Amino acid sequence: MSVGLIALIVLGMAVVGYVIGRSRSLSLAASQDRRLHSLPSYYGQAVALFTAVPALLVLGAWLFVQPIVVETRVSEMIPESAIPEGGALSLVMADVRRIAGGLDALMTSAGLSEGDLARMSAETTNLRERLGGVGVALGSDVSAPVFEAAKAMRAANNAGSLAMTIAVLALALVAGGYMLSRVSPDMRARNISETFVKALLIGASTVAILTTAGIVLSLLSETINFFRMYPATEFFFSTVWNPQFRGGSELGIIPLLWGTFYVSFVALLFAVPIGLMIAIYLSEYASKTVRSLAKPAIEVLAGIPTIVYGLFALITVGPLLRDWLAQPLGLGNSSSSVLTAGLVMGIMLIPFVSSLSDDIINAVPQSLRDGSYGLGATQSETIRQVILPAALPGVVGAVLLAASRAIGETMIVVMGAGAAAKLSLNPLEAMTTVTVKIVSQLTGDTEFASPETLVAFALGLTLFTFTLGLNIVALVIVRKYREQYE
Amino acid sequence: MNMYDSPEREAKLDQKATKISARNVQVYYGETHALKDVSVDIQDKTVTAFIGPSGCGKSTFLRCINRMNDTIDSCRVEGTILLEGEDIYDRRVDPVQLRAKVGMVFQKPNPFPKSIYDNVAYGPRIHGLARNKAELDDIVERALRRGAIWNEVKDRLQSPGTGLSGGQQQRLCIARAVATEPEVLLMDEPCSALDPIATAQVEELIDELRQDYSVVIVTHSMQQAARVSQKTAFFHLGNLVEFGDTDQIFTRPQDSRTESYITGRIG
Ligand SMILES: Nc1ncnc2c1ncn2[C@@H]1O[C@H](COP(=O)(O)OP(=O)(O)OP(=O)(O)O)[C@@H](O)[C@H]1O
Ligand SMILES: [Mg+2]
């Protein structure tokens, strides 16, 4: 029976359980002449939940575990000799899986019985051709052990599915029946749904946390692989980034980090003062109408895809800076430069800074402004001496969040600053960042298990550590600031 | 409608100049008519108390006197208020300059998130009242002493003002307002968060300030009004019901509403 069908049956049983549970609670209450602890629908829900939830959980777990068990069992059947020179067990197992999957189609098309299949052997039949006929294309002839393994896998899978169907349906029946037998006017059915809702919510947050942990762990394990092949000291302290296809690469992160921080710095240098001034204008000076128009207009900037910013950098800003700044000053003639990427990224970050700072400045209590005005201070004195100092921690938090955004940005850098790893102070020269190199190393055509590819994970982890640190600092600062007025 | 004696005669009686003269002041918050046709004369070197039930417009009127209502968008003020004969709502008057002359202590303590010292030094710095650090130190100390808080904070002038207790914060705000040497000091329930000892000290300060300034104090304590003020104004539902000598208001009120209020029957 297919998985979807099983799930549907379980859900159907849950619906039936709901109806029975509800009516049973009502009839019990009537016959015993007592008030129900909960509304009748809660009794129905309790029965339905007990029917569906454990059964579906087991179904999910089974689907996850069965392939692993079958795979390990079957792979034991493959002798060393069946693994071709230079190949791996995993490649052979992939074949086994495909043949096992194709066998059913083969049986129906050729009208074979189970007995026929058992008697069939790799020596007597041209399996490659026959499987090809039912749409399973194989790279090589099927050897006897592989074919036997495939037959064993198919048998194990079939047995497993049958056992799964029985187990899941039985569990649904037993658990649902148990709950139904417990239904009585005293039963706290409301609390059961409450617990279920809580478990559901916890489950949802666990998914998010586990995903994060999973991402970090996978980064970490590949990074460890990388450091087995490439010395960590070279990676962290070498000032040369020069990957080679044929080995002997120099993979020093310093030029990339330099590029990353240089571009981010230029971007923040641009975005922070402008964003802050916008925030001050909007929150302190602008009239309601101006504010209601200007704020969304500025936030539109945040909605522009970064690739569009990239285009703007590539086509407009880059050539402009080259023709009007770099060449007249004799500082180079590349249209991609740190300044180009930094400027455009700065534009992208303006709404970040302005919008967050605006909220923070607005959160400064009116009573502080009153206090300052009441002492005869002007508006700008009040802003400079009372409001900004009060809002400063929050503003710093906003800037740090913008910084972590800048560090992670890729598209604008590729199109604005180029892809050449360089250590230079000249802002009009092309440089590149960590993110750009992650993309180019992973999409290159080197083998996956080479340091040239795996370095991407080490780069990713380093970057992640930086942005995580920035985010934590920002959050701590912002939280501290919140406490001040509560 | 207003039941007080004519201001001219009063001025003659106690020989004190009129500091603030309000005529037909109306205040609207959007559609709400918060203050209705208030006319009053506040004398120099006098403590004037505003009393009345909550929401009757005492703070609103106080805020008219130093144009703090300008900072509320929905607020509209009509009528005239003269400070030493000059219309403070005149186009040529700079509200910033006005507020330096008419200081204010707010109903809720609002110290700046700065050190205690910087809180008090804020006004003198803005207005350039001190030529050097030593002078500024003097001003700060004097103000803190007058605010009856010097002994509690003299060892921690550099710690944040927001870290003080509610009552200490209120006295810090009083010190902050006094430090700018205003001619008129408006105090909105300055003692609502204070214990009896600090209250007595603030009342002493008010009495002392009366030598040079004109003080307007909003209070919910009849005893306090009776103790510190020479003039009392009773507000009710946005109207100025009665205004006169404190003695007279508390012993022989003219209006039945005033009498009910001070004897505790309305409020
Ligand atoms: N910012 C504002 N916006 C709208 N209405 C306001 C505002 N401030 C005060 N009001 C209204 O004006 C009226 C008078 O308020 P005000 O603060 O002057 O009262 P009060 O006499 O000081 O009261 P309390 O003794 O409680 O401080 C009230 O009805 C109040 O709701
Ligand atoms: Mg008030």
UniProtKB/TrEMBL annotation, chain A:
GO terms for biological process: phosphate ion transport. Residues 257-474 form the ABC transmembrane type-1 domain. The keyword Chloroplast does not apply. The chain crosses the membrane at residues 45-65, 161-180, 200-220, 256-282, 302-321, 333-353, 454-478. It is a multi-pass membrane protein. One of its GO terms (molecular function) is phosphate transmembrane transporter activity. InterPro entries: MetI-like, MetI-like_sf, Phosphate_PstC, PstC_N. It is found in: Cell inner membrane; Cell membrane. SUPFAM superfamilies: MetI-like. Part of the binding-protein-dependent transport system for phosphate; probably responsible for the translocation of the substrate across the membrane. This is Phosphate transport system permease protein.
UniProtKB/TrEMBL annotation, chain B:
Residues 20-262 form the ABC transporter domain. It is a peripheral membrane protein. The keyword Cell membrane applies. One of its GO terms (molecular function) is ATP hydrolysis activity. Gene3D superfamilies: P-loop containing nucleotide triphosphate hydrolases (3.40.50.300). It is found in: Cell inner membrane. The keyword Repressor does not apply. Its main location: membrane. InterPro entries: AAA+_ATPase, ABC_transporter-like_ATP-bd, ABC_transporter-like_CS, P-loop_NTPase, PstB-like. Keywords: ATP-binding, Cell membrane, Membrane, Nucleotide-binding, Phosphate transport, Translocase, Transport. Pfam families: ABC_tran. GO terms for cellular component: plasma membrane. This is Phosphate import ATP-binding protein PstB. It comes from Seohaeicola zhoushanensis.
